[in-house]
Amino acid sequence: MAWTVATIVAILFLLLLFVRTPMRRAIALTIAAQRACKRREFETAARFFREAHEAAGKLKEPRKSLIESQIEIAWATLLYRLGKMGEAEDMLRRGFSRTRAAGCHPQMKPAYLAWGDLCTDQGRYIEAEGHYRTAIEGEEQIGNTAGMIFGLQRLGDALVRQGRRDEAEETINRAIVLETQVVHQQMARQGKEPGKHRIVSWSLPDLHFCREQYEDARKLYKEKVEHWEKSVTRPDNIDLGHLQMRLAAANEHTGHTSEALEMYTRAEQTFAREWGEGHPKIAAAREAKESLMQVAAGMPEERKC
To answer: What is the pTM (predicted TM-score) of this model?
Structure first.
């Protein structure tokens, strides 16, 4: 019988899972946890992370700190997704402290993105900014342009939320430049001439939003929301709820009150479906909707378009 590569890998994984060596067991359980996360089996993933951490605790230094730190950071990301914000931050703090002891802190800098997101969801934008800058620095050091783009998009958002729009615009423009470089490189590999093709930056609506050009932002966010709402699969870095919140805000700023209320509702539903119950993202969408409802209650009917 001919075995597929996937079957062989699965068998090797199962064998590795039951090996009693703490190092191998910790690695195997971490892989199992990450796979469970992709299947959205979060409680199972949490159990695997816990068991992996216990196995890593039996190692000797410096391997102990090296493996424990990486497990803790991955585990913290899961806890954040489940809305367990205090536990997640405590574990992030502990994990990054261990990376310094293990000498792998520079390599783990990109993971600060999750800490920045956690701070953003709690309204701690200055702290979020610092974590995003650390993540971007880490991505730049390892030459991961795509990672830099995602970090710059989040940093731009944190700066907009602080009202520092000039700095935000500079940051978003930097993301756009990198996006253009990536697209040009992809086209070159495909034998296409970049100058003959129209390139639309994914960060362009963020730039319009930053500049308070809300009508332009509204049109572009609408395209993005419609695209990802219809997509069967969506990359992990695409936060549909965030895009829906931005579209709702753009609708609100341009006087499209009914559409804004509907989009806040859809964002709330997306967050409830994709994030843990009680997550701050859900509360933010609900609060934005309720605030607009109070404003709309005092509006003349003709303005509730």
So the answer is: 0.87
